[in-house]
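Entry 14: structure prediction run for HNH nuclease domain-containing protein. Input pasted below.
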Amino acid sequence: MESSIIYVLSVSGQPLMPTKRHNKVWYWLRRGLAKVVRQEPFTIQLCFETSTYTQPVIVGVDTGSKTVGVAATTNGEVVYQAEVYLRTDISANMTQRRMYRRHRRARKTRYRAARFANRRRQVEWLPPSLRSKAEATVKAVRLIASLLPVGKVNVEVGNFDTQRMQHPQISGLDYQQGTLQGYLVREYVLEKWKRTCAYCQARGVPLELEHIVPRSRGGGSRESNLTLACYPCNERKGQQTAAEFGYPKIQAQACVPLKDAAHVSVIKTSVLQQLRSLFGDAHLSVTYGYETKYKRIQMLGLPKSHTNDAVAIACEMGERVKPREEVYQIRCLPRGQYQRFNGRHSEHKCWAPRKVRGYKLYEVVKAKGVVGYIGGRREKGSFIIKELSSGKKLIEVAPSKLERVARPTQGWMITRKPILENLRKEGGASSPS
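Run finished. Output tokens:
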């Protein structure tokens, strides 16, 4: 098992080269020659003057719509690798906030003058959901720059052919004609599904256009996400996907969703502009998916993952490095909720103390052999523990059974895991490689 890396800062706070000499570090800490400034990743700051000679560190960034991979290499060794889980709840939270705001104004304001005419968007404006992803990607690179002497940043940008993602055999004039050439949407769906209910196979009854993935669950109104259903089947299906309704084959017929690919294509410009302003043109370079795939498979022999892609991006052509056996998992956290009152007639003020039984939201805890974070608290009752990466509910336990593992800092929840637990199926879009 390889030893963990300890990151070192100078007296003035400038990053120095990391070290694996744990005995030396513990000696400094005991003697008061150094102090701990960060638990994860473990970082110390020296309290005495030392030489500031450093070697250049190259950072690789694998941009994505849900997960971003970052890695740093120097002298043929990986000194940092992490996965950043981006927030995907911004749009839903803003919809909820808008609902609360409008209801509050309807209750408390008799008349409010329209203000839509005096609002202007800037040239480089991004929707809040995409701006959050771009800023989190840049923030992850800034974290590395605060730990290591970064000399160069390599960013992979993805160019997605969305039509080829849906139809791999497309070529030539098919790009101009499209799927609905000569059809209306309803007539196309009727012919595609042979005027039959996709769920009960009923014919000769009124059929409705039905979304395989409901719009409330992120599904679009593209023809690939539409099918036919009779009224009883459409009512029973409700807000479920076709797979949840018991028809996985129909779910499989829906083409690849394009939302994630569009997100990556949009935020790449903002990410590059912000990194260019931080590090300068001379220290920023752009790479593409085919280069990453060649280096990851042919040179390094690594399986597909966000961190392995980031390691390949950080490497120079012909350079061989070995990834570390552990990876940092960083989850972006929200600041709080927007609801101020609840109850049947909004008569109760929502209690939101900073601590409940000594615990705050999003603290990493251990209970009944399970490690997760606090996703919900009850003033009189159990706490809800959720999975670190996916946010799925694990267990409910009393606060007396909890054991604190780590606390969130700077809007992040940082944990360390073995690399084998990180090689799972990827979600969203990262790169065409």
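Notes: The CA atoms of residues 51 and 70 lie 28 Å apart. Will compare against the previous run tomorrow.
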